[in-house]
Amino acid sequence: MLAESTDRDRGFNSSALSVADSLGAALALSISGAAFAAAQRGGHDPFLVVFAIAGGIGALAVLAAVRTRH
Question: Which of 15, 29, 38, 57 sits a CA distance of 20 to 30 A from 21?
């Protein structure tokens, strides 16, 4: 993204990437924590649920990476 940015927009785009990265990590952590607690209350293996969520996020990341490749 930064390689495609003009000099004028590079600072804004860099900040946007940083915010998006932090937001993604915070959302993944909060969703995993809520799923862990719900699985534990429901009598399921909470680690399996969290690993399944992480695997799903990883699969989505691979799909996005393949789609945006030059």
Answer: 38
pTM of the model: 0.75
Q: Under 8 Å CB-to-CB from 2, ≥6 apart: which residues?
A: 10, 13, 14, 17
The tokens for 35 are 């799923």
Q: Following CA atoms 50, 56, 57, 63 in sequence, which dihedral angle do they give, to the nearest 10 degrees?
A: 170
Question: Which DSSP string do the residues of 1-43 spell out, in sequence order?
Answer: -TTTS-TTTHHHHHHHHHHHHHHHHHHHHHHHHHHHHHHHHTT
Hunting for tokens 């969290």 — which residue is that? 50
Burial state string for 13-33 with b = 16 or more CB within 10 A and e = fewer than 16:
eeeeeeeeeeeeeeeeeeebe
